[in-house]
Amino acid sequence: MRFLFLGDVMGRSGRDAINERLPGIIERYKFDFVVVNGENASHGKGLTEAHFNAIRNAGADIVTLGDHAFDQREALSYIERETTLIRPINMAPGTPGRGAMFVEGRNGHRVLVINAQGRVFMPPIDDPFRAVEAAVAACPLGEQADAIIVDFHTEATSEIQAMGVFLDGKVSLVVGTHTHIPTADHRVLRGGTALMADAGMCGDFESIIGTESDEPLNRFLTGIPIGRFTPAEGEATLCGVAVETDPRTGLAVRVLPLRIGGSLAQAEPIFD
Amino acid sequence: MRFLFLGDVMGRSGRDAINERLPGIIERYKFDFVVVNGENASHGKGLTEAHFNAIRNAGADIVTLGDHAFDQREALSYIERETTLIRPINMAPGTPGRGAMFVEGRNGHRVLVINAQGRVFMPPIDDPFRAVEAAVAACPLGEQADAIIVDFHTEATSEIQAMGVFLDGKVSLVVGTHTHIPTADHRVLRGGTALMADAGMCGDFESIIGTESDEPLNRFLTGIPIGRFTPAEGEATLCGVAVETDPRTGLAVRVLPLRIGGSLAQAEPIFD
Amino acid sequence: MRFLFLGDVMGRSGRDAINERLPGIIERYKFDFVVVNGENASHGKGLTEAHFNAIRNAGADIVTLGDHAFDQREALSYIERETTLIRPINMAPGTPGRGAMFVEGRNGHRVLVINAQGRVFMPPIDDPFRAVEAAVAACPLGEQADAIIVDFHTEATSEIQAMGVFLDGKVSLVVGTHTHIPTADHRVLRGGTALMADAGMCGDFESIIGTESDEPLNRFLTGIPIGRFTPAEGEATLCGVAVETDPRTGLAVRVLPLRIGGSLAQAEPIFD
Amino acid sequence: MRFLFLGDVMGRSGRDAINERLPGIIERYKFDFVVVNGENASHGKGLTEAHFNAIRNAGADIVTLGDHAFDQREALSYIERETTLIRPINMAPGTPGRGAMFVEGRNGHRVLVINAQGRVFMPPIDDPFRAVEAAVAACPLGEQADAIIVDFHTEATSEIQAMGVFLDGKVSLVVGTHTHIPTADHRVLRGGTALMADAGMCGDFESIIGTESDEPLNRFLTGIPIGRFTPAEGEATLCGVAVETDPRTGLAVRVLPLRIGGSLAQAEPIFD
Ligand SMILES: [Fe+2]
Ligand SMILES: [Fe+2]
Ligand SMILES: [Fe+2]
Ligand SMILES: [Fe+2]
Ligand SMILES: [Fe+2]
Ligand SMILES: [Fe+2]
Ligand SMILES: [Fe+2]
Ligand SMILES: [Fe+2]
């Protein structure tokens, strides 16, 4: 099977690009399954139910979140009703919502998607490694699951690489989100797991990681807030990673970056 | 002119790749100038004089450093004698060595290279923005300098993007180092400055950012050291970024990634 | 001479205690000079001009600030007019206001007060050690200055102790602020400088460092904001430190804690 | 009953003070139970078995640890045999040793001691609040336990205060360790739990939090290591906190600081 993961959708710019381009992308590159990280879709801060529905309607099978999961307070309630929206699995016990979902894609593939949050340079949270390990063990790749996709939302490159090594051979893809900058280290590890340190955002790169440059730059220079952070509104680059799996094992056969639109160098996931 | 920047050389694996491949790369792609970050060249920690000389002999015009600059104590003395080795410019006043060098390349181009260190998720250090601004002002692009290359050694993607916006139109390239993972966001900003959030390391990617995986993974899982960090010794990927400048202005016309050897997807900087 | 330093005034509770008790304290214990840290006086966030004036009217000769200096935006302008309000000296060049003031107290003593901000577990800022050293050198103790008081606003106990050692023999008092909890390590160092790691806040201790407990506790337990931080409104303990100096040298002869009112164990600075 | 808690024993200076003074202190102030934090007893780094035994022989009923628990590797094995040595309860599952012990004191009191580690400005670790809550629930105060003592090893004053509020009414004492500086905020909270943000170290205060000043000061000034950290060897101040409980409830009736020897202002825990 072939699946696509798209990184943090950033504000209106990112949402518009998802709405306009994702359906065509799914068709053109023949994706069987799509995961989109939506933690910044609503004004850069969290995800309203309306924006969640829009991302789903554009073709996402599962939407993941991150440290901004509940910036929009309504997410604390509607996440309980939704079976296609997940937040980091290692959030505190009792947190609304779930951290993993096992669903069937448009072509009948059964896919486990796990969202976890890192701890290096991130707010305190419980161990993501053990939490992900348990979720994978409950639904092993090549047995129950045709593919397992892990969105590891974290800052440090060491931590995402460690998660890749930790899960190598047990999941189809470990992909980082949160830094908003796509990395060029996509590869299939020795055990057959695809890894990419960060998918990059779906947002306007003429910015500081998706935010209009003025205020972030002011803060770096003076340390004193004078305005608010607002998402940049130019054309987004959709950033993500595409994986083709071995139907027998669910492991990755190939991994290719996707970067379409906006100001970044373009990359099309052409598998053949 | 056309120049190349290569990211953090990591241990023997990185040094060997530099020695074996850099001369051929310079010749094949016709680079007029080469900068290499050497902060991890000696066993992952700092840079001995012998390893510095080896990197220079392989074709580096300038070698830059980072937070590991003085892990090899001998660097505190030999850096004072060297005119082609720089450490972050915003280190404390009185730190041995210099943070910027203005030198002439093999084909007569006069190039200013600046090394600076970030502050987000990094050890405390003085303001890199003002320090770099002053160095650039003392030797403006298109006047004294044919090219200005800024190695901004930092962790956070927001800080490197901010430095790019800050210097846009005043330098040829702002490139990040330190995370050891190459990014795919290379582009020319509106004002003509090329930007890439991280050059990536020159090291073995079958590892956790260049270090043998066992001990870093152990620490993520248990929090308790049981061994030492040692550089991985498989074949390195040389990671970096190549820039072609407008001879009149010194600004970037094109920017292309370079990734040669080892386990990452290959990228050749073919400008035409 | 004899002077008093009071730590971070926290919200209405702290302001009320200052207004009601400080005049009597000054009289009873015969203080020649008073410094008050006001960074949290206005609803826990910064210092309005009205609240600054109230603290001054209650008897403060100099008011100091910290990382919250400009949370109340009006401080960016009125600080420029005030000669008795200072913010951390190591803020970025161009920051409104000054970081040190040399003033004359009610009984004719000439006092230099310096405010600086630490870097460990704090937002990035330039080197406080060199900035304070330069301010002290410009107005030496026992020559121009009858007393020098350093409010070092920082989190880590190691950093405040280091500042004490660094300045020992050159200033009358190094006192920490920012953690809001008074320490019991007040002492005169070998060189004659009094040191106390944190003065403690002037606020209601039936709280979490001055804030109503519910929301901070919620965040520790869930990681998810559900309300705002508001200052606790019970009776404040005024927390600070009193120093008696040798009139010839300006160095400390004795140092005593002050804790009056509220729920902490009381401590009166009775020098004889 | 009456119990004593002593903070981080720092190197030989701290060990000597424990050996020489603790037996007399127990006798003079009639302590029924003694807990000592030993995480820095062996050269500032961890706790050898010999040093653990020495602290026990001097009168400690239970020895606690912290982030330095396993700096001396032998602790990974001997902790498994010891029933009076605990490490933070929220360390990763599978970590050698236990995080809570329920033991009987010299006069027949049954005491539960819990060690936990904070997360703010500390290495990543699982939630200490839920871990402590579960340990308390398994052995409630006033039922199984005559006293419950919680050593919360953490940096941030907000986190230790939050733990106090969280456990108020359920334990006898919440005391912080790790900053090495005693605080002056000891008090009985409304629900009957005694709280003190940091017990302070048992070490030589003519130092930077127990370490010879030269190297820490050098690092603050230059950022570049030139030597090692070694414990200061002058006379230690024993720092801690004493609590008297209500025999019916196990809650605190009074709480008093103890500071004996060395260079800090002395405080004797005289309850009547
Ligand atoms: Fe995020
Ligand atoms: Fe994000
Ligand atoms: Fe590096
Ligand atoms: Fe580095
Ligand atoms: Fe404060
Ligand atoms: Fe503060
Ligand atoms: Fe300690
Ligand atoms: Fe500690």
From TrEMBL, chains A, B, C, D:
Keywords: Metal-binding. Transmembrane segments: none annotated. SUPFAM superfamilies: Metallo-dependent phosphatases. The active site is at H68 (proton donor). InterPro entries: Metallo-depent_PP-like, YmdB-like. GO terms for molecular function: 2',3'-cyclic-nucleotide 3'-phosphodiesterase activity; metal ion binding. Fe cation 1 binds at D8, E39, N40, H180. Fe cation 2 binds at E39, D67, H153, H178. This is Metallophosphoesterase. It comes from Devosia psychrophila.
